[in-house]
Amino acid sequence: MPKISKIAVLTSGGDAPGMNACIRAVVRTAIHHGLEVYGIRQGYQGMINNDMEQMQARSVSNILNLGGTILKTARCLDFHKDEGMEKAYQNLKAKGIEGIVVIGGDGTFTGALRFSKKYPDIKVIGVPGTIDNDLYGSTYTLGFDTATNTVIEAIDKIRDTADAHDRLFFIEVMGRDSGAIALRAGISCGAEAILLPEKETAIEELIAGIKAGHYNSKSSSIVIVAEGDKNGGVYNVSEAVKKEVSHYDIKVTILGHLQRGGSPSAFDRVLGSRLGFAAVNALTAGQSQKMVGLQANVVVLTDLEEALNQHEFNLEPDLLQMAEVLSI
Ligand SMILES: Nc1ncnc2c1ncn2[C@@H]1O[C@H](COP(=O)(O)OP(=O)(O)OP(=O)(O)O)[C@@H](O)[C@H]1O
Ligand SMILES: O=P(O)(O)OC[C@H]1O[C@](O)(CO)[C@@H](O)[C@@H]1O
Ligand SMILES: [Mg+2]
């Protein structure tokens, strides 16, 4: 097997805390192996625009603690098209880059797999980097822990004021297709109800639960609504409840993008370092079209194809059941 000598790294899709730790690990592990390593800016857009630069050990000094991504990220429509992919390929070939580490979510991996099938001489390894925790093959994705901690810090504060005023709050958290943040945050903050894209909740059922809570002397209530819940969004849900529930003053809070920012937790710093290290080791071992992930605290490789096909992510049934039991 010919030895790989030049690789590149990019971040793509929504940023996630811990991406910088991962970039640092990729750069320094590559240097350890004697490889040249390039940083590509703005995800696939930078591949198309030839926006990439060689990185050194010092290029990634003092970034472990930073949220966001020093390489920047993008949602790049041009990469969906054959012409965009061809341009990206030619740019990589011109630099002699033979392998790339792509840090991102399911969309990023879909693009990477398509690209690598079209141009198999460029090896690709994916690192699951998304606050959504919606990838098969890794129990946790990079950024999910930090984002969930950010969310619970915010909800704890809302609980204080909700309790002081005997109010009912509807809080929207991120997750267009994933209820992972909503479920963990709901359990951590003792939410009275959690609305998730993966599980339908009838509005009548929600209203009955809120009324029962009031009857059982709850002074405040928190309902967490994941962005992707199928009831038409947090305002729709709150309006529907308002018509039937008069004993609470009702408020809505959308946490929004503050959930994606901030300094990564220790967990995400270690996870990012570990997966970045493993990704480069996989490239030097000749692997391609794989994702590195964490399962039972062991780093494992999963075929990108399998990770994407199994994408339907099932939230832990015991957590769903427990959240209901404990919220009485
Ligand atoms: N079918 C596809 N073909 C080519 N490229 C794709 C495809 N799907 C996604 N991509 C590329 O991957 C990028 C990132 O995908 P997407 O915006 O879905 O985010 P993601 O990686 O899933 O992360 P997150 O969900 O955390 O924001 C897209 O902007 C696009 O450049
Ligand atoms: O910042 P954007 O592009 O609006 O994306 C928001 C989406 O990205 C995510 O934060 C994942 O990165 C989703 O939870 C959310 O639906
Ligand atoms: Mg995604």
Automatic annotation (TrEMBL):
UniProt KW keywords:
Allosteric enzyme, ATP-binding, Cytoplasm, Glycolysis, Kinase, Magnesium, Metal-binding, Nucleotide-binding, Transferase
Q: Which residues form the active site?
A: 132 (proton acceptor)
Catalytic activities: beta-D-fructose 6-phosphate + ATP = beta-D-fructose 1,6-bisphosphate + ADP + H(+)
Activity regulation here? Answer: Allosterically activated by ADP and other diphosphonucleosides, and allosterically inhibited by phosphoenolpyruvate.
Query: Which Pfam families does its entry note?
Result: PFK
Transmembrane stretches in the record are none
Kindly list the cofactors needed: Mg(2+)
Task: Quote the record's binding site residues for substrate.
Answer: 130-132, 167, 174-176, 227, 251, 257-260
Q: List ligand-binding residues for Mg(2+).
A: 106
InterPro entries xrefs: ATP_PFK (IPR022953), ATP_PFK_prok-type (IPR012003), PFKA_ATP_prok (IPR012828), Phosphofructokinase_CS (IPR015912), Phosphofructokinase_dom (IPR000023), PKF_sf (IPR035966)
Can you cite an annotated GO cellular component?
A: 6-phosphofructokinase complex
Task: Tell me the pathway.
Answer: Carbohydrate degradation; glycolysis; D-glyceraldehyde 3-phosphate and glycerone phosphate from D-glucose: step 3/4
Instruction: Tell me where it resides.
Output: Cytoplasm
Q: Name one GO biological process term.
A: fructose 1,6-bisphosphate metabolic process
Q: Which domain of life is it from?
A: Bacteria
Q: Example GO molecular function term? A: ATP binding
Q: Cite the EC number.
A: 2.7.1.11
Summarize where ATP binds, as residue positions.
14, 75-76, 105-108
First-tier enzyme category under EC: transferase
Q: Which residues form the Phosphofructokinase domain?
A: 6-283
Q: Which residues bind ADP?
A: 24-28, 159, 190-192, 218-220
Q: What does this protein do?
A: Catalyzes the phosphorylation of D-fructose 6-phosphate to fructose 1,6-bisphosphate by ATP, the first committing step of glycolysis.
| Protein family per UniProt | Belongs to the phosphofructokinase type A (PFKA) family. ATP-dependent PFK group I subfamily. Prokaryotic clade 'B1' sub-subfamily.
The record's subunit annotation is: Homotetramer.
Q: Can you name this protein?
A: ATP-dependent 6-phosphofructokinase
Q: Which organism is it from?
A: Mucilaginibacter yixingensis
